[in-house]
Design goal:
Blueprint (H helix, E strand, L loop, with lengths): L4 E3 L3 E6 L2 E10 L2 E8 L9 H15 L3 E4 L2 H9 L13
Parallel strand pairs: 4-5
Antiparallel strand pairs: 1-2, 2-3, 3-4
Length: about 90
């Protein structure tokens, strides 16, 4: 069963097996700064962080935004999924 990701305006939240995972962001103009992510220990390795980050990337595309990958998990995601690099910015200047 696919879990639903909810946008609170500050983070994307995924509830799975009664536990919450999230990708937190700050919007700075036309850039989403993905600065924090969390997946409970017992759920790690199941692709939940990737699901959240992918959702965030799609959200950015749909809203004409760029992405700043401030969190290590987002940087790793981009190393593996290079097709999303065109969205990235590394400075908020």
């Amino acid at each position: 069963m696919k879990s639903t990701i909810i946008d609170t305006g500050e983070k994307f939240i995924l509830n799975h097996e009664g536990m919450e995972s999230y990708l937190a962001y700050r919007r700075r103009g036309e850039v989403l700064d993905f600065y924090s992510a969390y997946v409970p220990g017992s759920l790690r390795g199941k692709g939940l962080a990737s699901d959240l980050i992918l959702h965030g990337m799609h959200y950015a595309v749909m809203n004409g935004l760029r992405v700043r990958p401030s969190h290590p998990a987002v940087l790793r995601f981009l190393e593996i999924n290079r097709e999303w690099e065109y969205l990235t910015v590394y400075s908020l200047n």
